[in-house]
Specification:
Number of helices: 1
Helix content: 25-40%
Distance between the termini: 62 Å
Shape: elongated
Amino acid sequence: MVPAASHPHHHDDAHGLDHGHSHGHDHSHAHVHDAASPHPAQDAPWSILRMTLAARLSAALAVCAVLWGVVFLAMR
């Protein structure tokens, strides 16, 4: 018996013929666009680029403190 994936299928989306058997996939192309029409920019709820320098430094210090806490707990 020959596996179903080994026989060639020639698909043409415009042929309109019903083969009478399932190919295991559909021909929907719901998300297709070229590079000339990229997605529109979406409003980000939070961005590090909008933070002030003081806020960035505070966040970096907080992250460092948490990571050092993890290190000290691992060493216990």
